[in-house]
Amino acid sequence: MFSKTLLEWYFEHKRNMPWRGEEDPYKIWVSEIILQQTRVEQGWKYYLNFIERFPDISSLARAEENEVLHLWQGLGYYSRARNMHHAAKQMLYEYNGHFPKEYEQIVKLKGVGEYTAAAVASIAFQLPYPAVDGNVLRVIARIFGFTEDIMLDQTRKKIRQKCQQLMEGNAPADFNQALMEFGAIHCKPQNPQCEECSFTNYCYAFLHQQVDKIPVKINTVKLKTRYFHYFVFLENEQLIIQQRIEKDIWHHLYQYPLIETAQFSLFPAEEFYARWNISPASGKFAFETNHQLTHQLLIIRFYLVDQFPKKIDASYLIIPTKQCKQYAFPVVIANFNPTYLIWIAYKRCRSRF
């Protein structure tokens, strides 16, 4: 009864999206990775651009990492792009450029977990694996009354088992997409359309007036605040950049020279002088902005420095300002390019720090 009703709803209400109806496992995989932690409206453009530039496994595998990251710029969670690049190389060399057809092979690809493997396996190959994402967890928890902490592995395992039972006798691709779509546009986290829902006669959350309480999430991650000071060294229409190589956010993306402080300060003058042996009077404060990631809040200050250090560490690159767009920067840096920062600093006539 549940599956029949769900599929009827899906065939009537499903959204028309560029990857819907796609049979190429590579393109299905790309769409699933892009849509992780990303709204459909935002991911749509990135999907089209990505497929246009990298239409197949071989083109992605043979690309330079910087080009892949540059195309991903602004989408966030850059590890997804790096993992896709790595996985494409896996498929090129281990599967002769073909997408693996077995779930056990798909799930071993870099960056592919149980959900993504199940989504690709079911949609591309009609294999009976339930794809359980956040939307599915919410729908099943509400309708069938799973009131345990949704963040616990044991709870997710129970819901996955329930989905496996409900999928029996139905086309895996249709069932998985229907359940995900129902959670995305009907049984939403906030303001679900309960008055128009076909499951209200037996939905546990609706009948017990707990729609706003289910799914239960007990474990919450505290937001960590970090303080970044970016120094834009400009001299003779050249500037200094560096690649982030630490196991941290924005891994392998580029940035301006950075000093991170443990707490807020107007300008880390002592560390600035010690690192580059330049008087702090050589520059201007330009701009401050906040940038929130999933578990981190970044307080970011940009400074303009009108001379290069006498000694530049080998980890830094000196490039013409006009070449900035050739490098993959985090969007918060790309949005404030050198020209914009110069304009801010000098038009506002900010005092020297």
Summarize the structure.
By secondary structure, the protein is α+β, with helices and mostly antiparallel strands. It is 42% helix and 14% strand. It folds into two domains: 2-207, Endonuclease III, domain 1 (Orthogonal Bundle), CATH 1.10.340.30; 224-347, Nucleoside Triphosphate Pyrophosphohydrolase.
Describe the protein.
The chain is of the alpha+beta class and 353 residues long. The chain has two domains: 2-207, Endonuclease III, domain 1, CATH 1.10.340; 224-347, Nucleoside Triphosphate Pyrophosphohydrolase, CATH 3.90.79.10. Helix content is 42%, strand content 14%. It has 15 helices and seven strands. β5 and β6 (296-305) form a beta hairpin. α2 (25-34) packs antiparallel against α8 (114-125), α8 packs across α11 and α9 (134-144) crosses α11 (172-185). The protein is elongated, with a radius of gyration of 24 Å. Mean pLDDT is 90; it is low at 348-353.
Which terms would index this structure?
Nucleoside Triphosphate Pyrophosphohydrolase, 42% helix, alpha+beta, single chain
Secondary structure topology:
Elements: H1 2-13, H2 25-34, H3 40-53, H4 57-61, H5 65-72, H6 79-94, H7 103-106, H8 114-125, H9 134-144, H10 153-167, H11 172-185, H12 204-207, E1 224-235, E2 238-243, E3 254-255, E4 258-261, H13 269-276, E5 283-292, E6 296-305, E7 316-320, H14 331-334, H15 338-347
Parallel strand pairs: 1-6
Antiparallel strand pairs: 1-2, 1-4, 2-3, 2-7, 5-6
